[in-house]
Automatic annotation (TrEMBL):
Coiled coil: none annotated. InterPro entries: Isocitrate_DH_NADP_mono. Keywords: Glyoxylate bypass, Magnesium, Metal-binding, NADP, Oxidoreductase, Tricarboxylic acid cycle. The keyword Metal-binding applies. Its cofactor is Mg(2+). This is Isocitrate dehydrogenase [NADP]. Belongs to the monomeric-type IDH family.
Amino acid sequence: MSSIIYTHTDEAPLLATYSFLPIVEAFAAKAGVEIETRDISVAARILAQFGLADDALSELGALAKTPEANIVKLPNVSASIPQLKAAIKELQEQGFAVPDYPEAPATPEEKEIRAKYDKVKGSAVNPVLREGNSDRRAPASVKNYAKAHPHTNKPFAEGSKTNVATMGAHDFFSNERSVTLAQDDTLSIVLETAAGETVVLKDGLEVLAGEIVDGTKLEVAHLHAFLRNALAEAKAQDVLFSVHLKATMMKVSDPIIFGHVVKAYFADVFAQYGDQLAAAGLSANDGLGAILSGLDALADGAEIKAAFEAALAAGPRLSYVNSDKGITNLHVPSDVIVDASMPALVRNGGRLWGVDGGEDDTLAVIPDSSYAGVYQAVIDDVKKNGPLDPATIGTVPNVGLMAQAAEEYGSHDKTFEIPAAGTVRVLSANGDVLIEHDVEAGDIWRACQAKDIPVRDWVKLAVTRARASQTPAIFWLDETRAHDAELIKKVNAYLPEHDIAGLEIKILAPALATAYTLERMRKGEDTISVTGNVLRDYNTDLFPILELGTSAKMLSVVPLIAGGGLFETGAGGSAPKHVQQLVEENYLRWDSLGEFFALVPSLEKYAEQAGAPAAQVLADTLDRATGTFLNEDRSPGRKLGTTDNRGSHFYLALYWAEELANQSEDAALAAAFKPLAETLRANEDKIAAELIAVQGKPADIGGYYRPDAAKAAAVMRPSATLNEALASF
Ligand code: NAP
Ligand code: MG
């Protein structure tokens, strides 16, 4: 039987679920729509590894490969090691018999435990569920709202010195080699060291005929030369030095690159004290913050700290993440995430914050040049033509390749910090060399895959979206890049499978695609960006932030290749800062628009799957209710004393009930919802007041990774009047 699976995840979206899901369940029940939940939070995934909870993620992964799938997927935590350890500790404190995280597994038992935890670590959910490509756009109601209520994109000052610095050579972009496999194969990745040793980096890598496989390296000696230049340039230009990486998604490569930036900035300190720091287990990869806080335990700690401070005073001025708290751009590898930080910089007139909280131009260092040109193109455009005006600019939906872990550059299992100089080879099962690179110790080498069926589906989705919205579609592919050249062959092979008469479909390298898209955008014209997986992630922050001021209000559909639907909620993450605010002052500023948007196509899918017209009525009325919600400006404010997440859910329920009561497609549903609509309307002020009255005091949810269900429900459902109205409905 069909049902909608609503996921329990982590942090702010999980808290929001405690308030929103009871409303959805009450509404769905009246229309006979089945809703089930599955817990795929970090905590539940840890418990599942040790047989203490159902393995919901595997279950959903299997479901995603069937036409029955109808999954509403909220953002979840991609756990870093410190987060994983914190979750383990919390579960242990709650009485669950989960083992400690083995730092250096030695025994077979420890290795097995470590392997289990590795399955929970990092980006472990999305690659399992994303059995389809990505269709993300701002719904028309959101775009219209943004046009009517534009946020400010600040102008760049005359003579702004803000620019991007990127390697352009000896990096992942330049060194890439790519092959399309003629037949199914099992590959291995092997390092032959200069000393004659053979190190198997990876084996048993199953690949299919038609699959694209790449290998590339970032040469660390050149990275250091590049960083020295960039530091000198920032100093000479007297601008802030900032580095922009994606240490969360690219969880092997980017913390290492970040560590090199820390070592380059503090070159003298590391030359003098590097051995002591290493001996104390203080790694540049963890950031300046972790090093400084670890110094207290060292005999020479004060001296080393003084050396860091002297270097900060003498070096190029650093950009700060939080000037008040003294947190620099080099403090935490995951604090500055390129896809969020660069659009924020553009919105702010090219300025970041310095040590004193003052704003200044910056040299934005994005070491690898694969996508750095996109941001330089935006900066060039805004410098020349002024800020983009949200009241008039066109929109840029995205169709992104991601199915079956396509282009998962972040995958930790195929990225390596090379231990010794030699040659890395990708070998087919019969020993043929598919890809080969000479490497030095410390170089970062990575492989990546994209299967044929997902690419073909992606081309189809691009044409479908271009046709449905009568919008030009641009494939952001660079024929001079090895991987893209292989993809372009496939795009050219698969486009003729579709009717593309009258559609504008082009292939442009990313920087050119950016310039072309911006030119159209300024004329109020829309342009679909059809991209690989990384640009999918970057563009669905960049353009929404410039157009709407946020990426949280996006419709994010994953049409599954097998015919089912995966409906992601928004383009953002799980907003940890929001949880902090809730716990401190019982205010949740999470905006559930993403959930509202996701639920509409999910209900439509249900109507089709179950042959249930009432579900279609729920979908249509929810869509209209969301329009009213936007017009009435019921999204949560940022501050205490305004409507927060819970209040926003109440208004959505009110508008949705009224739409249902007033529609004429389904008279029984209209009659059923009439009393609820009347009760909610009659008690509007009372409910709103009850929801605001609880704000301002700390809230106890009984856990972070695994909140206490009863406590979280009590905090998130504080209006007795609303609860009573739903219960008696
Ligand atoms: P983030 O969760 O998107 O948060 C960045 C900021 O975006 C938030 O602090 C908030 O700004 C704003 N934001 C995002 N969604 C919002 C919403 N629905 N309503 C209101 N504001 C919203 O990004 P992050 O801090 O880089 O990542 C946090 C966690 O989410 C990480 O564990 C990451 O791995 C995970 N993540 C998951 C997914 C996914 O599952 N699809 C995607 C991305 C990230 P203000 O604080 O200014 O209000
Ligand atoms: Mg992103």
